[in-house]
Design goal:
Elements lengths: L2 H22 L8 H11 L6 E9 L8 E8 L13 E8 L5 E7 L17 E7 L2 E8 L4 E11 L4 E16 L2 E4 L4 E3 L1 H4 L16
Antiparallel strand pairs: 1-2, 2-3, 3-4, 5-6, 6-7, 7-8, 8-9, 8-10
Protein name: VCBS repeat-containing protein
Organism: Fibrella forsythiae
C-alpha cells in the first residue's frame, strides 16, 4: 500500500470522529500514533524544527468540512523565552474533497511560549474556539492580577483569507480559589484600531501591553 493510500485511509478514519465533533461542537480528536505522524508530516512542510503539541477541529473556511488548527512547538529553547519555554507555531490545515489535508498558512506570533504565562511560568495557552466565520485563541497570563487574552480571526469568503477581527484583554483576579472576578472592563481592539491584518502577517506587537 503506497504512502498516499495510507494517508487517505487514515484521514477517512479520522473523518468519522471529525463529523461527530462538527455536529456536537468543535474540540480535540483522540490521537493515535498514526495521526500524530500525519500531523508531524504537515509540520515538517514548514521551516524550522517543530514537533506536534495539539490540534483542534472546526470549519475554517465555510465549506462544511472539518479543518484543523494545528499547534506545534519548537524542539529547542529560544533566546528571550521564559525559562524552559518553547516557542509555538500555529498551522491551518484545510480538508480537501479528495480526503487529504492541505497546509494553508502558519504563524509564529499568535501564541506565547509554553512557560510564558507570567511569574508562575505556567503555560498561558488555554484553547481554540470556533464560532461561525470566527475562530479564537484563548490565553491567560500574569501573576496576582491575571489577564484573559482572546485573539480572534475571521474568514472572509469575498477575500478568501483569514483576517484579524478583534483582540480582547480582560483583567481578572480570584476572589476565592477557582472563582475569578472581573476587576476592570475588557479592552477590545477592533479592525478600526488594528488595521487590515492577515493571519499569516499577525505580529505580537499588535497586542497591547496592558
Amino acid at each position: 500500500m503506497n504512502h498516499q493510500r495510507c494517508c487517505q485511509l487514515l484521514l477517512t478514519a479520522l473523518l468519522v470522529s471529525w463529523a461527530t465533533i462538527l455536529v456536537n461542537g468543535q474540540g480535540r480528536v483522540p490521537l493515535t500514533a498514526d495521526s500524530v505522524a500525519l500531523y508531524q508530516r504537515h509540520i515538517g512542510q514548514t521551516p524550522g524544527v517543530y514537533r506536534y503539541e495539539r490540534h483542534y477541529v472546526g470549519d475554517l473556511n465555510n465549506d462544511k468540512r472539518p479543518d484543523v488548527v494545528l499547534i506545534a512547538q519548537r524542539t529547542q529553547h529560544q533566546p528571550g523565552d521564559a525559562p524552559g519555554g518553547l516557542a509555538r507555531r500555529v498551522i491551518l490545515l484545510l480538508y480537501q474533497p479528495n480526503g487529504q489535508l492541505r497546509n494553508a498558512v502558519y504563524n509564529d506570533q499568535i501564541l506565547r511560549c509554553t512557560t510564558c504565562g507570567g511569574g508562575s511560568l505556567v503555560d498561558p495557552f488555554v484553547k481554540v474556539v470556533f464560532n461561525g466565520n470566527l475562530f479564537s485563541f484563548v490565553s491567560a497570563y500574569g501573576l496576582g492580577e491575571r489577564t484573559s487574552q482572546v485573539i480572534t480571526f475571521e474568514f472572509d469568503p469575498k477575500r478568501p483569507d483569514w483576517w484579524l477581527h478583534t483582540i480582547t484583554l480582560q483583567p481578572f483576579e480570584y476572589a476565592a480559589p477557582g472563582q475569578p472576578t472581573n476587576t476592570r472592563p475588557p479592552k477590545v481592539l477592533t479592525k478600526n484600531e488594528l488595521g487590515v491584518v492577515r493571519f499569516q502577517d499577525f505580529t505580537s506587537k499588535l497586542i497591547p501591553k496592558k
